[in-house]
């Protein structure tokens, strides 16, 4: 009988360990068991998305207000088209808002930062499917290093 109790306790421990790893994996991947509620989509064209990936957060002042839904190529302008899923519970933004692709830390993950524009009598709020025109592309570290080396070489001449 004591052998049977030991096997049950070991089995429960293994099940708890597997459940802990599943919760940890969801947490690291940025997924959640609870939904974010209703959302609406916005679109934006960037010249360069760098290492931005789908499911990357959209942040306003460090608060997650949405997620990157998809990244595709706009076949008319040949620029990356980013579709954002914005959480309705975090609010709506003026059409004068701007987007920038930012990096967490020096070499961290990339995310989309939204900066709300000014609100005036003639300014509409962004709605489902609207396009944000004011965008700033990702800074590519290799390009910055290349520009730095090029500027040093030009100073030597």
Q: What labels describe this entry?
A:
single chain, 157 residues, 2 domains, 8-stranded mixed β-sheet, alpha/beta
Report what the structure shows.
The chain has an eight-stranded mixed β-sheet with strand order 7-1-4-3-2-6-5-8, with no helix packed on it. The model has no long low-confidence stretch (mean pLDDT 85). By secondary structure, it is an alpha/beta fold. It has helices at 2-29, 141-156, and strands spanning 39-45, 57-60, 63-74, 79-87, 98-103, 110-115, 130-132, 134-136. The chain is extended and about 80 Å long. It contains two helices and eight strands, in the order αββββββββα. The protein starts with a helix and ends with a helix.
Overall mean pLDDT score? 85
Strand content: 25-35%
Overall tally of domains: 2
Helix content: 25-40%
User: What oligomeric arrangement do these chains adopt?
Assistant: single chain
Number of helical segments with 4 or more residues:
2
Secondary-structure-derived class: alpha/beta
Q: How many E-type strands?
A: 8
Structure described in brief:
The chain has 157 residues and is an alpha/beta fold.
How would you summarize the topology of this molecule?
Elements: H1 2-29, E1 39-45, E2 57-60, E3 63-74, E4 79-87, E5 98-103, E6 110-115, E7 130-132, E8 134-136, H2 141-156
Parallel strand pairs: 1-7, 2-6, 5-8
Antiparallel strand pairs: 1-4, 2-3, 3-4, 5-6
